[in-house]
Amino acid sequence: MSWTDERIATLKKMWEGGATASQIADELGGVSRNAVIGKAHRLGLKSRPSPVKANEPKKADKAPAARPAAKKPAPPRPAPKAADSAPAAAPPRPASQGSGGQSQPLPNPGPGLPKIVSVGPGGFLRQGPGDQQAPIPPAPPRRLVPAKPSPEIADKTSLLDLSDKVCRWPMGHPGEPDFHFCGEPVNPGFPYCVEHCGRAYQAQLPRGARRPPPPLPFGGPRVR
DNA sequence: CCCTGATTCGC
DNA sequence: GCGAATCAGG
């Protein structure tokens, strides 16, 4: 498999969206997760909350220990700089599981977006004690609505048409011919439109009104 | 052992 | 440029 523009675009979006390399590789098909990571790095994407990252080069001495057991005697690595453009803090996301055994991250709003925790039934924002002030309470849906962004989307929002103005909610699966994004105008301050904000930031419904399935952008059974 | 991303290096 | 092999941490 070669890296076509579309595949690269998908890779980018999913990578930026917080999907793991494995998920991306799986979605793209025909490539290993290593390929995805390698490509991502070659594209300039990098780092992002990587689980493996406890070692930070302290300002001190450290004789670069050569690799003990390696087929090839690798010269000491210069400096494994890693923490440069890491998001301040990932907003807690409602996690649900659809396929594997580990958590399935939702597309992550890029840096600069408000850290919304969740949306209450009445449309108020739940936030940490410290974060006192919402950018703007969007009056999200009181109850979840079936994913039906718009009766007719004349032109499907392609991967490349994404901007911070349109809803990035993925419709279908990447790689499918009709894979596209919601494309509705976003809820200001959010990566999604109002409807999909209600899905992404799973509203906490009053007891009893709990029946809709847990929809997820990526990996979910199918949302459409 | 499972997972994760990072890096290296032969191709 | 690509990605398997490897490393390293959770």
From TrEMBL:
Transmembrane segments: none annotated. InterPro entries: GcrA. Residues 40-158, 205-224 are annotated as: Disordered. Residues 55-64 have a biased composition (Basic and acidic residues). This is GcrA family cell cycle regulator. It comes from Pelagerythrobacter marensis.
